[in-house]
Amino acid sequence: MSGLYRTLVLALVVVLAVVAQVAVLPVVAVNGVVPNLALLVVVAAALVRGPEVGVAVGFAAGLLLDLAPPAEHVAGRWALAFVLAAILAGRVRDDARDSPLAALATVGACSFVATSVFALSGQVLGDHAVPVGQMIGVVFLALLWDVVVAPLVLPVLMRLLTRSPARELAV
Amino acid sequence: MARQRLRGGRRTAARPSLPDGERGTGFGRRQRSGSSRVVAGLMVAASVAVITVDAAGGEASPVDPVRHAVGTVVGPVETGSATAARPLREALAYFSSNRSLREEVATLSAQNSRLRTQAEQVPLDRNRLAELDGLTRTANRTGRALVAARVVGMGPMQSFSRTVTIDAGTSSGVGRDMTVLNNDGLVGRVISATASTATVLLVVDTESVVGGRLGSNLEIGFLRGRGVTADRGRLDLDLVDNAASPAQGDTVVTWGSQNGRPYVAGIPIGTVESVYSTPRELAKRAVIDPYVDFTSLDVVGVVVDEDTDGDRIVVNGRGQ
To answer: Residue B232, class by beta-carbon neighbours within 10 Å (0-12 exposed, 13-18 middle, 19+ buried)?
Structure first.
């Protein structure tokens, strides 16, 4: 019962993040780069719930980002990028869960890895390949955005995804 | 080992002796690392599998039906979110406008006088073109009918593709390979459509190639996007005729495809910003500054058949 409830919350958060990213956040886009909310959800899930849930959420969120309307690149590229980011976040989980600064560093590292993996997979597949200089610019702008937004969003996400204290006491 | 001792020392007081393997704690890490590695490996393999299937599938990819299904479900949600967020966008636009308004007025008044001279020449050119069209290709339709739509979703630049979602789909008569334009000029073409939304590939995308014609000497060429929609969103023009040379400030319009798909003829694209040639290549290349501002796309029109019967009003050139 509790497990189902938590899975539903997680699924809802993932869908909301992806929709907000394409429909609402372009308002604040800088050169078209927006905060990667879906990635923050993946990092939060990996930190709070551990690497297994993290990679599963990463795969699901990435695939949704690959398939949801304006996307038309080869499907699976964001999925791969997010899974690798989730593996990274899961590895440093013990250190990053309790220290805000370490969590922020994790977000930065995951953002860099995810955007770079996505960009490189595009170069390999010849799918929307852009000049390298532009690619690097986008990767760092995205990193900056994610680190700026993380302090606002990550604590909320982590509290939402963690088992509620009342429930834990009741069990 | 050392790590576990450290952790034990630090956290034991807070989280007393839970048995190993208990979920939700850091203690079972060693026990669970095997299974988490399996899950991670599985997910990486799944991602690579999806990429392979989609990349190998090409035009008839097995992923397309899934994409369509997701679009059918998520599209209306995006439309709703965009509508809900519109006041926010307008509020932000109000604040940002004050700052940039001054320079914008200067730019616009300069642009306005330039456009007025251009507009004065257009009817002449268009009449001449219509006559020629009528003579050479009677089958070709010259009239255009538009379905208006709003942009409700924009792919993040992190995805390196410049695509947007519009809130009109097959139920309004919008379908694959239709021209999308706005008041300023050519926006792009529809690459996929669900019942209520459609995805538009902008001309600035790196995958986009548009046939263009120079206004001054009617030379034809191909415009390729550079993938940027910032202030510096530019297109590269390669002319077919090596001897032809585009002039700075020259207007580029669409050349047109068979039956107006994916691009109808005569839609303004942009002006020639600069011309350059490299010793390696014979042909001259030109950089085109598009008329459309791709960062603030809102209302767009989709060129549809004149007899389209959908759930939206079809605007044609002759007043409804």
So the answer is: exposed
Residue B128's pLDDT band, with cuts at 50, 70 and 90, is low
Domain definitions of chain B by residue range: 139-320
Please give the average per-residue pLDDT across B132-146, as a whole number: 50
What are the tens digits of pLDDT across the range B33-77?
677 788 888 888 888 888 888 888 777 788 888 888 888 888 888
ipTM: 0.74
**Residue B269 pLDDT class (50, 70, 90 cuts):** confident
Instruction: Say whether the peptide bond before residue B262 is cis (omega within 30 degrees of 0).
Output: yes
Helix then strand then coil, in percent of chain A rounded to 5, is 80, 0, 20
Nearest Cα to B266, choosing from B275, B257, B254, B276? B254
How many of the other CB atoms lie within 10 Å of CB of B125? Answer: 15
DSSP string, B50-70: HHHHHHHHGGG-THHHHHHHH
Distance between CA atoms of residues B197 and B180, nearest Å: 14
d(CA B111, CA B245): 24
Please report the pLDDT score of residue A42 as a whole number: 92
Residue A5's identity, in one-letter code, is Y
Pairing label, strands B145-154, B209-214: unpaired
Helices (H), B16-140: 29-57, 63-136
β-bridge mates for residue B219, sequence order? none
Q: Which CATH superfamily is domain B139-320 in?
A: Rod shape-determining protein MreC, domain 1 (2.40.10.340)
Judged by CB atoms closer than 8 Å, whether chains meet at B78 and A51 is answered as no
Asked if B47 lies within 8 A of A80 by C-beta distance, the reply is: yes
Structure-block tokens of residue A99: 């220290």
Residue-wise pLDDT for B172-213, tens only, equals 888 888 888 887 788 899 988 888 889 999 888 888 888 888
CB contact under 8 A, A23 and B26: no
pLDDT digits (tens, 9 = 90+) for A73-100: 888 889 999 999 998 888 888 777 778 8
Q: Does B201 touch chain A (CB under 8 A)?
A: yes
Nearest by CB: B71 against A58, A69, A83: A69
- The structure tokens 């590939």 sit at B201
CA quadruple B123, B125, B131, B133: dihedral sign: negative
> Quick check: B189 and B213 in contact, CB under 8 A?
no
Domain residue ranges in chain A: 2-164
* A74–B55 CB contact, under 8 Å: yes
| CATH number for the domain whose boundaries are A2-164 | 1.10.1760.20
